[in-house]
Amino acid sequence: MRFLVRRLTVLVAALLAVSFLVFLIPYLTPGDPTRKILRGRVNAMDIDPAQLESLRAQYGLDRPVLVQYADWLATAVRGDFGYSYTSQAAVMPQIGAAAMVTLVLAVGALGLAIAVALPSGILAAMRRGGPVDTAITTVTQAFVAVPEYWLAPLLILVFAVKFGALPSAGWAGPAWMILPCVTLALRPISYFTQITRASMAEVLDSPYIVGARARGLGYYRTILRHGIRNALIPVVTLLSVWLGGLLGGSVVVEVIFGIPGMGRLVFNAVHNGDIPMIQASMVTIVTITVLLATVTDVLYTVINPTVRGSHVGS
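Request: output the structure for the sequence above.
Response:
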C-alpha cells in the first residue's frame, strides 16, 4: 500500500506539472494566441483589431495567466477541454475516437514485435556465439536504421501499388492495419530481441538454473519453468515505454497511411494552431504514459518477488 500511495503521489504531481506546461503552450510559442485562433478561421492577411479584442474576451485570454490556468484545470479534470478553434466541435469526443484508433495500432504493432522478438531473443541466447545468434543479432540491429518515413512508402509501393495485396491508406478493417503495424513494429522488434537475448543469457548463467540442471531437470524444461519468466522482467518494463511512445510518436505513420489517430490529430492541430486540441492531446498522451508506467511498476513487483520485498521495506 505504501508503494502504491507513493506511485499515485508521483503520478498526480507529474500530471499537475505537465498540465501547467501544456497550458503554457500558446504563451511559449511565437505569436499572439488570439491571432492564431482567428487565422484558423479566416484566410485574410489583415485582421480587424476589434475582432481580436472580442475573441480575446470570448476565450478569457485577457485575464492573468494563473487565473486562466486555474479555470482551465478545473474544467480539464472533468474531461472538458473546450471546443476546437477550427472545427468548433467539442475536443474530447475527437480525442477519444482518435486515441482508440492509435491504441489499437500501437497494441497491434507491439503484439507483432513481441511475437517475433521473444522467440528470436530466446533462441539467440540459447545459441550464443553461433551462426544463429549472429544472424538474429545482425538482422534485428539493422532494423534500428530503417526510418518509418522511408519504410512506409516502400511498403505501400510494393504491397499496395505493385501487387495490390493490401490497402495503401485508411482505417476500415484488419487488412488496413497490416502495413502500418509492420512499419511501427520494426524498431521495437530490434530492441525487444536484444533485451530478451541479454536477459535470457544472464538467466541461463545464473546459479539457480545451473542448480536445476544439476538436479536432473531437462534443459528445455528448465528454460520453460525458470528461465523465461525471469527473462521477461526487463521486457515488461520496455513494453510499457514503447507503448507510451507509440501513442504519441506515431505521427509519421498515421499521416502517411491516412489513419485517423492521435498522431494525425496532433499534426493537424499543430498545423492549424488549434490550441485546445493540442493541449487535450498532450494531456491525454502523458496521462496514458504515466498510468502505463505505474501499472508496469506494479506488474514488476508481481513478476519479481525480490523487488516486492524492497518496496515493502522502504
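The chain has 15 helices and no strands.
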